[in-house]
Request: fold
Amino acid sequence: MFRRTILTTMAAAALLLGCTAPLHAQQQALDSITAGELRMHLAFISADEMQGRDTPSPGLNMAALYLATRVEAYGLTPLMPDGSFYQTIPLSRTVLSRTSTLTAGGRTFMFPTDFGASGSTAADLTGELVLVGYGASDAEAGWDDYSGLDLQGKIAVLLEGELPEGHALRLGDNRRLRSMRTFTPAGAGAVAVLNVISPSRERAMTGAEFEVSTGGVSWPAGASSPPRSSSGGEQRGGAPRGGMQRGARIPVLELRHDAAAAVLGISRAELEAMFARLARGERIEGRALSGRQATIDLETDTLSEHTQNVVAMVPGSDPVLKDEYVVIGAHYDHVGIRHGAYPDSICNGADDNGSGTVSMLEIAQAMTIERPKRSVIFVWHAGEEKGLRGAWWFVQNCPVPLEKINAMLQMDMISRNDHDSICLIGSHFVSSELDAAHRRVCDRLGLIAIDDKYNDPDLPTNNYHRQSDHYAYHSYSIPATFFFSDITPELHTPADEIHLCDFDKAERVTKFVYASALELGNMPRMVALDRNPEITQRGQRISTGR
Ligand SMILES: [Zn+2]
Reply:
């Protein structure tokens, strides 16, 4: 019913304007945006094969390749100086080096064959050894391996025993038990934990190596929020800290049994005997191994890597206005794999933000049927989930002058919740004319209603404005609108999957954004910067957050 009304309205408008051709083309372009094609693209982007599109990751690169291949097929123009659809973001990654060693009992053991270590933080320490048996302390189970032991400045040695079925310690939460065995020594002042792996893991490790942790990624300064111009009160983003920043800040090593026997100064047979006692549910009495010490030397390597935004352009149809731009953006990354999640561990990010990602493909295709006078730049951002990294990188390394960007339209989650409305955030924070343009288009199309519940810069109850990519553009005084269908219970879990997406809604939101981009691309002048007295020109770094 809505659609019949639109057609009638558009036909009347065409008659009034006396120019049926552009409107006909615009309708053709709108008609090219379909729920079926959105679903097809999303089936690829949110597939398990993308491995949750973490930044950086091979899955994200595969998604980027899909986007670049599509826009090339549509005939879009590369915008980057090297003629590529990729805007490269250089990264570095720190991993534990294979030169890392553990020395004890006159022998030196190597990472990752003799011992494993999580995280990627360097360490160089020597400590006396304290055997803490199974390494648990659970009052309810009547078990305490730590009483009477002094761990201050010492290295705790734990035995990852396999307690018998039905043992009191096995009745509780396994995850809690695991973290307790690591954190209790740290809390008692130990400088490191050596966890001797269980006999079954020892058997399974024959000929194998411990996993080398993927390590922490360091982002270049240009992929972070820069300091604000006046107050300078905002913290610089910079590199994240290493892998041991939470909880136990001490090295936790996993030991194979040869290394463990040398560390403890016992034979393999004596070690197996201790595991046999644990298997019967008996406690191994903890004790300081006076005179015995170990040296842990963890070294790191820095690897150069990269990720990318995907950037493409539809050149404007007007010889003058084509040097001004409308930017359409969405993040195509997600949060990767959630270890330990059951029964599925891949966070497919269908709504977040596969929905915005594929919506942009449909808009790109529609733009090849009917494009505006200004050029339209498409930016699929990487690393949004890591702190709007790709968006900060784009605005701080922008291939076009920021002063020439009329407005930015951003989609992040557009396929869920209320079937007939879409939340707008930020549409009137910088320019009343941007907001007015959306409302004109909304009324004309009659496809979907605008929900303004979050569209208030002073709303204390939500911070969504600062939590998605448009915020980086907004911070450089570019009028920007965030299209958002609100959060869902499945957000950032493996359950955010394609079958929950409302493609009929996504189609209508996509048409709304496409038509808004046309409107903003065709108006005689760029929208006025009339809402924030601090903002006098685009490209200016503003000192307030809104
Ligand atoms: Zn998102």
